[in-house]
Amino acid sequence: MIQRFIQSLKRINPLAEPLIRHFWVYLRALYFIRIAKRLRTLDSGDALKANVSHNMRSIYGANHRMNLLLFPLAIIETLDADSRILVIGPRNEFDLYSLVALGFRMKNLVGLDLISYSPHIVLGDMHRIPFDDCAFDAVVCGWTLSYSTKPQQAALEMIRVTRPGGIIAIGVEYSNLGPVEEKKLLGYQLQEFDKLEKRINSSASIKLLFDGKVDHVYFEHDAPRKISHSADGLSKNVSNVAVVFSRAPIET
Predict the structure, then answer these.
(1) I need a surface site. Which of 13, 89, 159, 245 has the fewest CB within 10 A?
(2) Could you report the average pLDDT of every consecutive run of 10 residues in the chain (252 residues)?
(3) 0.85 exceeded by the pTM?
């Protein structure tokens, strides 16, 4: 009985507790940024100009809205602990360790961002993903695609690096802010409205970006309450849009 109890303790993953996970990620960020001086950034001509500075404001934070994309990955039976997963735009290590908490192995996880301090996050641009074709079993892009002025190009790159039948998970924040309201809220203008053909604000608009490559849709959340931040302040219950689908097979 004692031996079974000891074995059960070995299976406990402390990172499954969000508070512990956030504290661990925070300590690692402090070390790599303040002590090891590993913080680096990259400019992208296809991203919003204020993208990096905007996201640096929350470099130590934890964002649980990614659960909308990560939880489905944990129950899709075509993925397992050894699945190779790319997380685009994680900002810090929290999303990666959240995947570890869900049972995936860190050695198979990698982040890609214009900001990096972590050995687990490659400094790179989602419009030119620095990995081979079909390199990943799943690609997660949460709340990052809306920072692109060329989301179609980013979508094509995600398709390229995902194996046929692999999973692509996309999430964006629902917003009806215009340029005046956005500047009043943030103190600066984040979106470059003159470069946007149409705001990505629905699951249909996400699927359209991947037109012809969406096979089975596992999960779809279309911001049913349509709650947006406003010029008067941030909403605690802002709506989000998410689609998790499998990449269509390569045509022969």
Answers:
(1) 13
(2) 51 84 96 98 92 93 93 97 97 97 97 98 98 98 93 97 98 91 83 74 95 95 95 93 94 58
(3) yes
Given a contact cutoff of 8 angstroms between Cβ atoms, the answer to whether 75 and 167 are in contact is: no
- DSSP run (H or E) holding 87: strand 85-88
Could you give the CA distance from residue 95 to residue 211 in angstroms, rounded to a whole number? 27
How many angstroms separate the CA atoms of 127 and 148, rounded? 9
The domain spanning residue 129 has which CATH number? 3.40.50.150
Q: Does residue 252 form part of some domain? A: no
Tokens in use for 149?
């002025």
Side-chain-side CA neighbours of residue 181 (13 Å): 12
Residue 25's domain comprises: 2-247
Distance CA(123)–CA(39), nearest Å, equals: 10
